[in-house]
């Protein structure tokens, strides 16, 4: 007989991608056809959340209620949750994602979930700890990176020898979302040979990311008007980064998509794991760009990829159109020329 699922679940981890993976694993092992509803702790829990949590659905559709950044919920929300979790709908399965940074190997919990000034944690948390309705992880470790690399290479049918594994393990980020972007770059770089080489560790080097970031920043400040010159420059940069691979456009698309996703995350106050001096630069650019501009940049990347895969454009045409499009989408608003008069303006 299958073990009944927990009525609710806590996930304590600063890595949003690992949280998502864990929720998917739990959901896959319990029923199917889940509706997914996402809420954000900093926005509070609206009536819609409480209705989904406690009311039955006549159609009987099971629903996942995922509360991201639950550590940002206010104390009164936790008090209300503590009472409401005793009368959850049988169709609702709430997940509370505590995504704060860890300190000295331990998570930073909100006050209602820990012993604080002589007050014990809320019963809903104590019950979760006692009964195993909780999953905790500080994030990826070096051992995790090694295991994921090996599993990824096997799944993609790629050759990954010990030297390449060691070289990549030393430079890949300890963040699952960032790691996914890096693996996309490696997959594109190895698509012709099916072999991951130690030299490909250069693709993960921060220098290439900073170079592309500098290009995006140049475009936003209005220095990207020479699209043809920009294409030539960035083809050379990517050729060096990809170690002489003939087709470089997909490499550009992967790196550009990662940069724009980072800017989008920063705009939405999502955690981004980067060295402070790099993060500060990206933060300044993200503040200058609108959400619509970043979204348009991502659309242009998809259009370029579709154009190449469909055969409508070759690599060079797609790259040239893409960079010109990015210059228009991300660049500063055009200045209207003022009429000249006889005197000084």
From TrEMBL:
GO terms for molecular function: DNA binding; DNA-directed DNA polymerase activity. One of its GO terms (biological process) is DNA-templated DNA replication. Keywords: DNA replication, DNA-directed DNA polymerase, Nucleotidyltransferase, Transferase. It catalyses: DNA(n) + a 2'-deoxyribonucleoside 5'-triphosphate = DNA(n+1) + diphosphate. It is an enzyme of class 2 (transferase). NCBIfam families: holA (TIGR01128). This is DNA-directed DNA polymerase. The lineage of its organism: Bacteria, Pseudomonadati, Thermodesulfobacteriota, Desulfovibrionia, Desulfovibrionales.
């Amino acid at each position: 007989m299958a073990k009944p699922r927990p009525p609710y679940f806590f996930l304590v981890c600063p890595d949003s991608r690992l949280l998502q993976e864990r929720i998917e694993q739990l959901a896959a092992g319990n029923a199917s056809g889940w509706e997914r509803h996402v809420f954000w702790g900093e926005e509070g829990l609206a009536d819609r959340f409480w209705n989904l949590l406690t009311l039955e659905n006549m159609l009987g559709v099971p629903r996942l209620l995922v509360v991201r950044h639950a550590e940002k919920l206010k104390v009164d929300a936790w008090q209300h949750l503590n009472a409401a979790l005793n009368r959850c709908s049988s169709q609702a399965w709430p997940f509370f994602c505590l995504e704060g940074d860890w300190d000295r190997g331990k998570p930073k919990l909100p006050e209602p979930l820990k012993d604080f000034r002589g007050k014990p944690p809320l019963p809903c948390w104590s019950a979760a700890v006692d009964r195993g309705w909780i999953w905790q992880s500080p994030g990826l470790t070096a051992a995790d990176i090694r295991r994921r690399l090996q599993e990824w290479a096997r799944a993609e049918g790629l050759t990954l020898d010990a030297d390449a594994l060691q070289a990549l393990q030393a430079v890949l980020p300890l963040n699952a979302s960032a790691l996914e972007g890096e693996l996309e770059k490696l997959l594109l770089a190895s698509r012709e040979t099916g072999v991951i080489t130690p030299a490909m560790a250069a693709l993960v080097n921060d220098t290439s990311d900073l170079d592309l970031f500098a290009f995006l920043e140049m475009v936003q400040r209005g220095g990207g008007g020479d699209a043809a010159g920009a294409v030539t420059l960035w083809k050379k940069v990517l050729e060096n980064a990809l170690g002489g691979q003939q087709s470089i456009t997909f490499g550009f698309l992967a790196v550009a998509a990662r940069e724009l996703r980072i800017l989008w995350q920063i705009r939405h106050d999502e955690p981004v794991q980067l060295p402070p001096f790099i993060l500060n630069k990206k933060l300044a650019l993200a503040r200058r760009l609108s959400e619509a501009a970043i979204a348009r940049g991502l659309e242009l990347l998809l259009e370029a990829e579709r154009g190449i895969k469909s055969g409508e454009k070759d690599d060079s045409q797609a790259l040239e159109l893409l960079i010109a499009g990015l210059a228009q989408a991300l660049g500063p608003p055009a200045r209207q020329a003022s009429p000249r008069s006889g005197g000084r303006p």
